[in-house]
Specification:
about 375 residues, alpha/beta, Rossmann fold, 2 domains
């Protein structure tokens, strides 16, 4: 059902209205009625679709899990897209969703950091769940009591991807990030560190593993990206870890025609391409489910930031749908346990010079 408004597109409409460090998530029972919950998932641009194989899809899975768990009606959740990619349009769309009845808004990605800096004040009775960002303007972060900021340990997920790739037997690796925002950078830097750790474990020599590293400058599919990825594969790259949202589909296309491999990101992307050997995932669905549950329980932890990391299974690799030939579930469980326990340190630095390697040769393009 699509209803066009002056604010945007409500893809799944409310029928009544439109016809820092990891912390334990509160779970105490409250008095909020499930019938009072109206959830809106807000896209950052007109091109940001629900089935994006990334943030929107993962967040929507968490919303659907909550709705199924509590037998909510389908008209209690909606997906909204703005008419343009601007902060003004995003704030207008937030207002439109609230006017349509939403009282819990889920907003994925760094595009919302400036808009929510303002919106959290404009709509004090609305609960905001901001994913992968903090409300920020001019470098200043401010989080009010009606907003929770969720972050993920991308460097840990990237580490697992790099480790698995080398343990699987790949020696010529690639990383393609979308835009060099902190989350993407941490994925890439973790990937390097994971490859280095595996190379050390296997007793490889300096230069046995090489890694080509590049930011695409966009998150949208583009034939030019397919061409670039195909050139990498033709020159010997065996697997590319793609942390680039929709642009990843362009890399998948190149991998399929080149009979090469890729590693997906954010959610399980094995169904998007036979080239995907595993995906470095964030607990998008888990975190969204947790926070909406906290709203239901009248225990919303507003004013706080949370980091979903390995210690609470907030990140990981998809193993059930993996296409590994050599890397095993047992090997994964061992390295994940070491990561979750803190016995392995993975730097979250955004500076490449802080990512030290002695075995893996990294070439930045």
């Amino acid at each position: 059902m699509k209803i066009k408004t002056i604010l945007g597109i409500c893809a799944v409409a409310f029928l009544a209205a439109c016809s820092t460090d990891s912390e334990e998530i509160p779970t105490s029972e409250g008095t909020q009625a499930t019938s009072d919950i109206q959830i809106a998932l807000i896209a950052h641009s007109p091109d940001s679709i629900l089935d994006d194989g990334s943030f929107n899809e993962g967040a929507w899975q968490g919303i659907q899990r909550f709705m199924n768990r509590h037998n909510l009606s389908s008209n209690q959740a909606a997906f909204f897209q703005p008419h343009e990619a601007s902060d003004v349009a995003r704030i207008d769309l937030i207002a439109g969703a609230i006017d349509a009845g939403a009282n819990v808004l889920v907003l994925p990605g760094f595009h919302f950091q400036s808009a929510l800096y303002e919106a959290q004040d404009l709509f004090p009775d609305t609960k905001f769940i901001l994913l992968d960002a903090s409300p920020m303007r001019d470098g200043n972060v401010r989080i009010e009591d009606n907003l929770v900021a969720i972050h993920y340990a991308e460097h840990e997920a990237g580490f697992l991807a790099g480790y698995a790739a080398v343990m699987e037997g790949y020696r010529d690796l690639g990383f393609m990030g979308g835009i060099a925002v902190p989350a993407v950078v941490r994925f890439g830097h973790g990937f390097i560190q994971g490859a280095e750790h595996a190379a050390a474990n296997l007793g490889l020599s300096t230069g046995d593993v090489t890694l080509t590293y590049h930011y695409l400058g966009q998150f949208s599919p583009d034939p030019a990206i397919t061409t670039t990825a195909a050139a990498w594969f033709a020159s010997g790259t065996e697997v590319i870890f793609v942390a680039a949202g929709g642009a990843g589909f362009s890399v998948f296309s190149a991998a399929e025609t080149s009979n090469a491999s890729t590693i997906g990101v954010d959610v399980d992307q094995s169904g998007d391409s036979d080239s995907v050997i595993t995906s470095a995932i964030k607990g998008l669905d888990v975190s969204v489910y947790d926070m909406i549950t906290a709203v239901l329980n009248d225990n919303f932890p507003g004013g706080q930031e949370f980091i979903y990391d390995a210690s609470i299974h907030g990140i990981g690799l998809t193993m059930d749908t993996a296409r590994f030939n050599n890397f095993t579930q047992t090997q994964y469980e061992v390295i994940f346990t070491e990561l979750a326990s803190g016995s392995i340190y993975v730097s979250s630095s955004l500076e490449m010079e802080d990512i030290n390697t002695t075995l893996v040769i990294v070439t930045e393009l």
